[in-house]
Amino acid sequence: MLHNIFSILFSILFLFGTTIEQGDALNQKALRAMEAGNFNQAEQYWSELIQEFPENPAIWSNRGLARIGQNKLPEALSDYNQAINIAPDAPDTYLNRGAVLEAQGKYTEAIADYNQLLKIQPEDAMGYNNRGNAETGLEHWQEALADYQKAAELDPRFALARINAALVQYQLGESDQALQDLRNIVRKYPFFADARAALTAALWSQGLQGEAESNWVATIGLDSRYKDLDWVANVRRWPGKMVLAMEDFLKLRSS
Questions:
Q1: Which of 76, 131, 194, 229 is most buried per CB count within 10 Å?
Q2: Residue 157 belongs to what domain range?
Q3: pLDDT in tens, 5-27
């Protein structure tokens, strides 16, 4: 199943490109279309710009993003390939191409791109987080945990990396540490639905039903998708043990 947009958006929504000196009006139209979520129109604008400026890697990258917004992952991959051909030392393009490869389930290839990114830019927290995502796809749990922890070390405000680390700790059987970390994350980021959902499942698995129920009410108020186990497992891509914990919670709660 295609794992498309969830993990990709975390890693590349910041890439709205550099304004080119010529064609600026069209470039601004494309950026406004992107910001409005009108990805088809944005793709058309970027395509026009590519016709005029085929050697500008930022335009290829931005069209790739517009294509991701339409779930055109093979086409987006082609755009990132071209951007890398033009500018092989631009780190963001490896991050974005890696995210597309990851969304296609090509985890080993994605890791290779993240490795290249980190070779160019070794302090890139997002690169470590995304490499951790690809490692979880291969069930390389220890490697994933190390990457998530490194991402959180580089950027202490990177809450998603901290949540990912806690999810992997739970997968590795470190449930007490995972629970402690999730509580700390929720305390600091009370409106982060992913942390509350994971905390709900972890609490329930340890018999702390009242606290679990309280966090669940908050979770659903923030994001109702966590009621859908298929989404949790295949789009958000929680590790298997936490998915099972959530499944147990949902089943027993409804019985």
A1: 131
A2: 140-255
A3: 334 443 343 333 444 455 788 99
